[in-house]
Amino acid sequence: MSEAYFPVGPGLGPEENFLSLDDILMSQEKLPGRAESSLPRLAFALGQGAAGGSGDSIPEGSKLEIPMWLAKGLHDSKRRIISVELPKIYKEAWRTVFSADANVVDLHKMGPYYYSFGSQLLNFDNPENPEIAQTILQTFISRFRRIMDSSQNAYNEDTSMLVARLDELERALFRAGQKGLNDFQCWEKGQASQITVSSLVQNYGKRKFTDMDS
Amino acid sequence: MAGERAVGLVRELQRAAGGHLPPFRAEELRQALEEMRALYERNQADVSEAKAGRTDLIFLIRFRHCCLLRNQRCIVAYLYDRLLRIRALRWEYGSILPNAIQFHMSAEEVEWFNRYKKSLATYMRSVGGEEGLDLTQDIKPPKSLYIEVRCLKDYGEFEIEDGTTVLLKKNSQHFLPRWKCEQLIRQGVLEHILS
Amino acid sequence: MEPAEAEFLAEQELVTIVPSFSMDRVHLIGVRGRGHKRGVPVWLAINLKQRQKCRLVPPEWMDVEKLEEMRDQERKEDTFTPMPSPYYMELTKLLLNYASDNIPKADEIRTLVKDTWDTRMAKLRLSADSFVRQQEAHAKLDNLTLMEINTIGTFLTQALDHMYKLRTNLQPAHGSQSQDF
Fold first, then answer.
1. Contact (Cβ atoms closer than 8 angstroms) between residue B189 and residue B152
2. Whole-number average pLDDT of chain C
3. Which of A31, A55, A85 is the last residue before a domain boundary?
4. Start and end of every GINS subunit domain (chain A) (predicted)?
5. Distance (Å, rounded) from C-alpha C138 to C-alpha A104?
6. String of b and e for B125-146 (b: at least 16 CB within 10 Å)?
7. Structure confidence by residue, pLDDT tens digits, A182-203
8. Is A213 among the domain residues?
9. How are strands ordered across the β-sheet holding B173-177?
10. C175 vs C145, which has greater pLDDT?
């Protein structure tokens, strides 16, 4: 990792971080919804041209798949023009799975922004909001131990299986834990005082070859 | 769907891990801005119609407005994160960037880098007494004034403090003042050998 | 903070040396004369030692019997026991690396200190987990050293930060702004 580049982190919780690349990609994830009234001239814009079958308007009751940022922007609790449904991983059936054993879930496959996306779902006044918020928090707590132990594990066990199943937030946390341990182990081996080549420079070295290939 | 180009820029940047700077996508950026202009113009027209009574257009106007804001956010975040990466280059690489990196920067970014460089230099001259203080040196606490280094590539003549020069030839080994070679090590020209 | 920086701070600790030279003009750093025991900062002691200008006297606690006791105590107690030096890890590494010939049973000492470190780190992880599990607001972690905190610090503060934000989700105020527009 570069030592001088610190990207803008995700907001997590109620507020997104405007400049965070993570949050932008998180809010690009889609969620299921439904048109509560007919939406003229929107079918093509929403990429539903053919499905509607009635020119460029979306008939009332049509199913939609819209990204989080758009759902947030269009949400209006007074005039419900588009309603939003919960993605299945936040529904009750999955919440039960999480409360039984959160560690078995592949959050990367199901997410990969499980915590951030879940937090943003709370914007839509769903009656199940309190349960969703509680499940997200409890999931983090239950998975915490395993992330800590494996990232701080001094015996170089293979952690790739575990990391593959972590959501993006957990992966960043895992990397932070591993860096703490690696730095310490480097120091123990007497390598901490060594000046090393910048990882940015290493990247450019490698990059040059791929550039020539393409 | 609107915003795809702009988010594509963000996606590419996010994939370039570890602070690496991918090429500046001038064309994609232009297209994203063009999309914004089109959205804005269509909204302008529809707003006048809505004012004249076409209230059924309000939702569509709102939709376009969301797309405008989304594009704006993606573009601003893209440009900002690139600046963070460019700033890191000053600290990790030094004040002169190799062509390979400069090719990846827009003219404005090069200009920004130069101004940042000057601003940092002015600040570093103002601290630490008359001679100033190079804050990019001694990132780690130094153990000794001189260090053993091995040359990883042919670099040529290199002047050390008293005016004498050494020839930095691939695989040659030298005992040099630490402050003189720290940057060359970070650039991958020299390798720091621990005794 | 980097481990190298923690080590840098540790180098300011005093250690006893027996100089094998005398030099009048170094009064300001406290080396008096041949054969006299003096306390000097570790960085200086190592520098002199590397040039074979002194013999290093290990700190009192750097002794197999004392360290065995320390390790057993650490294993017995649930909480963190006080360490003989806030830089016990750094000093062990520095002195054993540069002056192992002046320290009896250097290898045993290395192992004992490392065992103690491992026990303490395991304890630290255990208490971090119970802290998170019970959603505590504050914790008392007496007797931890800088190097220990450093190794897990970034990870732990990041995790607690995440948890704090996920807890703000529980407040029903969430989403009320969007209701108003």
1. yes
2. 87
3. A85
4. 91-187
5. 30
6. eeeeeeeeeeebeebbbbbeee
7. 999 999 988 888 888 887 776 6
8. no
9. B173-177, B146-151, B190-193
10. C145
Same domain for A54 and A145, yes or no, is no
A112-136 per-position pLDDT tens digit: 999 999 999 999 989 999 999 999 9
- Whether A204 has its CB under 8 Å from any CB of chain C: the answer is no
What is the rounded CA–CA span in Å between residue B143 and residue B160?
A: 19
* Least confident among A19-23, C20-24, C35-39: C20-24
| A chain contacts of residue C4, beta-carbon cutoff 8 Å | 187, 192-193
C147-156 pLDDT, tens digit each: 999 999 999 9
Domain boundary among A70, A85, A100: A85
Domains of chain B: 4-126 (1.20.58.1030), 146-193 (3.40.5.60)
CB contact under 8 A, B140 and C2: yes
- DSSP character for B194? P
CA dihedral A178, A179, A181, A185 (to 10 degrees): 130
Residues 35-54 of B with CB under 8 A from A: none
Please give the model's pTM, rounded to 2 decimal places. Answer: 0.88
What ipTM does the predicted assembly reach? Answer: 0.89
